[in-house]
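Dear colleague,

Following up on Tuesday's group meeting, I ran the structure prediction for the two-component complex that the binding team flagged. I've pasted the input sequences exactly as they went in, so you can double-check that nothing got truncated or mislabelled along the way. The structure tokens for the whole assembly follow below. Feel free to forward this to whoever is handling the docking comparison.

Inputs:
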Amino acid sequence: MGEDHARIIDETTERFGKDRGRLIDIARTLQRELGQLSEETIGRIAAALDMHRVEVRDALSFYSFFSREPTGKTVIRLCNDVVERMKGADEVARAFEEAVGARFGETEPGQSISLVYTPCIGLSDQAPSALINGTPLTRLRPDDVPGIVEAIRERRDVSDLPQTEIKLNLHKTGPVICARLERGAAIRAAVNRSPADVIAEINRARLRGRGGAGFPTAMKWDFCRRAGGDRHFVICNADEGEPGTFKDRVLLTGFADLVFEGMTVAAYAVGAREGFLYLRGEYEHLLGHLEEVLRKRRHLGLLGENICGCEGLSFDVRIQVGAGAYVCGEESALIESLEGRRGAPRDRPPFPVQSGYQGEPTAVNNVETLCCAARILVEGAEWFARFGTKDSTGTKLLSVSGDCARPGVYEVEFGASVAKVLDMVGGADARAVQVGGPSGRCLGPRDYGRCISFDDVSTGGSFIVFCPQRDVLRMMYEFTEFFAEESCGWCAPCRVGMTLLVRQFGKILSGKGTRADQAALERLAVTVKNMSRCGLGQTGANPILTSLRNFPELYDARLRSEEFIAPFDLAEALREGCDITGRKPRLEGAHA
Amino acid sequence: MTDETISISIDGRDVEAKPGQTILRAADEAGIYIPRLCFHPDLPPGGHCRVCTVKVHGRYMAACTSPVAEGLVVENDTEEVNEQRRRIIEMLFVEGNHYCPSCEASGACELQALGYRLGLLAPTLPYLRQANIVDATHPDVYIDRDRCILCGRCVRASRIIDQKSVFGFEGRGIRERLAVDADGGLGETPLAAADKAAEICPTGCLTLKRRGYQVPVGQRPYDRALIGGGAQEASPEGE
């Protein structure tokens, strides 16, 4: 290791107070500065933080933004998610490979540019999209690519490129979430009552978590408030990684004050003085804006000590940026990551409200939930509960993408039918809709009369439209690949099962599947669903399970009538040997 | 019933459990076997293998981490649950490269023994045939990662009992592997042959050198009896 490297590592660990809880920040900084986290770097970090080398490696090897091998000065992360590929990401990828002179997954000779594929980066409404050293590019066309690569080579600032424009794409604002709120109004409404009364108000509004699971927010806050412990924490979960979701991008861009207002209300309710906003690594481009909003709020006395003039009421927020891991959207995995470890979910109980960040009671809430909470404090529970249905009150943000005329964010009342949403977005002829993202369900026209609500079609917001020409099973296969890639590895059924599902599904898609293969696929999917440890594995087989249920005819069309087809091609497997020896095998009687 | 006991039922048998106890510990005390692999009585549970998953009021949960509660009705030894467990065991077999006939742990291996107990006759899933690194740098202990099931027993034992943190994981998903606290292999770590971590492996991944075949195959624990007790129904001869 050169002296320069050693100095950079030492300065970085020093800057973060040699705090092992800040390991992700340290690693993010060093990955940027050094282009890699080599074994030597890991050793030096470990020594500085007084950790075991294996602990540092354990944590850092988990995140897709960190690389053991050297990467280029410029890392181009092109999103190759399902929606992005529908919009032409493959052609853009070829253009990048040609312009750079390297394949995806490689760094060009001379170590200047690396090409990397990445799952959804929250820009499905303006696909194809990419991140260049964190700066997003949208609506890419193959023709754009040479100019982009030239700008990189000439060391121009990529943020000056025309493709860096991000549209808000908020096509339908509703009364609840996407409306203006006077700064501090919700906090003032909260501090005029006791924390218990704040929770009672949220309870009367029957607010449920917007991340998808729908847990009653008041109950979560009440558990947290009543839990013992010296410190309580509030965390805003802005790690929206579900492919096809980008409503938090819109909220954090256009309504950041409302989000922090909600966090402050939550902090008052549960008795927290410290909060975190866990921002997915792909959204680092929002960091400057969010820090600016925080600074303004501190200046206005809405954060910090004696908030709104209330003596003793203090609360502040630190933004933690993630490093590329879908599973960190699971609240206990998020906390692990926030503490500087790999984002593997925890065993529950205890739940985060009992033992969360640093073992203290912690309320983790979705960005959108916090916005709703702030609004409820200002407008009242009765007002809020007038929207939506009896058990799903309020409105929901949908991130609409895919084959429709107007992709973007829509605020709709709970109870809206799938058909109504399709009509609104210009996708009425859809062959299928993926509601709730890959972990949700794939619905066909039979189900378009069903409603967006916690009791019917529950969703964290992703709404992907497939037109009649789409090969729906191919989409389900790619979703399955996504989960296999994002499985954390902690538990056997998800770690191994997801990879086996990709294989088995692939066999059917390639036209080598039999009726028995389909039965095996379903059995495997059921085991992964039943036996996995966290929500990722429990829902990772949903693309397969829901398409088996809703689109059996698509499988029938793929299956072969033979009783058995080998998973491998014997002639193909023997070909290299045959070529070398110049002899032909006798394959009669073998299953080809 | 006093305040100190909680009544649950496991496979129709009434079981008295202590508050705070897990379903698995309560079952053990009552003499009811719940199949398990990553669990070890001297360690906190890891929740990795999910083999101890039981069905409670229609929901699947890991017995090693789920606490008892009054009135729980637990389904354990049912074909429905065992079928799922068998599939996990099979997944672990195809994830690694397990050549039982030539493995030093054969007959003492908990993975193999659970295969016998749960009636795993032949694999139906495709082998993943992953490449793994053998580490023979330590004077007394081998690591053969072909046989690692990522149960984390050695990781926990080294950290908690030996207080050395010799082991950890690296990578994620199907690329996750057992890692050691050194750049140049196990030989550079302070692991000692007498450490708990060196003897706690349920398979043949971590084995002590120069101890091979001291107990002849055929006379090993699971050659003689089913893991978890009960008569050996089918002889594994010829396996």
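The two ends of chain A are 54 Å apart (CA to CA).

Cheers,
M.
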